Amino acid sequence: MIAARAKPLFEEEARERQSSGLKKGGAPGKAGGGKAKNDNVSSFAANTAAKTGLSERTVQRDVRVAERLAPDVRDAIRDTEIADNKRALAALADEPAEKQRELVAAGPKAIKDAAREKRKPTPRLSAEERARLTAIAKGEDDGETGRLLDGLGLAIGSSRACVVIQV
Predict the structure, then answer these.
(1) DSSP labels for 27-90?
(2) Which residues contact 24 (CB under 8 A, 6 or more apart)?
(3) Among 45, 51, 46, which residue's Cα sits nearest to residue 67?
(4) pLDDT tens-digit profile of 5-14?
(5) Are 161 and 153 in contact (CB under 8 A)?
């Protein structure tokens, strides 16, 4: 969570460095100008990872969790076993704020159960289901599209349905 608090400070410093560079000279990419758009600019995650020894991806995940947790939820779990459980924190952060509050009120077991539920693998398709979905994707609809997708727990137009059809 420290990374999330440090991120706004890093971004502010980066804006100051960029604006002070632009005041010294011409346009970006010109001599004395600021950074050109295609220059590599060190990201917060890369900078923090280098200083802490964590991976860039770990810093990104930690910031994402901290930004998505409702402030009252963050306060409520601060001194609990959930505070050190990254998988549970990530699952909790993926929920809307109201659902976060419900899970916290239900206790640590409910939060861990929700995290476990998110990790369950997607059910495998039978050969028949795969053939039907392939036909649907090719536009060869046999009129049973809705029934098939309903049987798989999907809705027409849902992102999960699109992923399955593309497979």
Answers:
(1) STTSTT----TTS----HHHHHHHHHS--HHHHHHHHHHHHHS-HHHHHHHTTSGGGG-HHHHH
(2) 32, 33
(3) 45
(4) 677 777 777 7
(5) no
Q: How many residues does the chain have?
A: 167
Q: How far apart are CA 30 and CA 39, in angstroms?
A: 12
What is the crossing angle of helices 127-137 and 159-166, to 10°?
100
What are the structural domain ranges in the chain?
Answer: 1-67, 69-120, 127-166
The answer to whether 156 and 149 have CB atoms below 8 angstroms apart is: yes
pLDDT band at 33 (very low <50, low <70, confident <90, very high): low
The more confident residue out of 7 and 74 is: 74
Closest CA to 37 of 52, 22, 23: 22
17-32 confidence digits (pLDDT tens) = 777 665 444 555 555 5
d(CA 68, CA 83): 14
Mean pLDDT of 96-114: 94
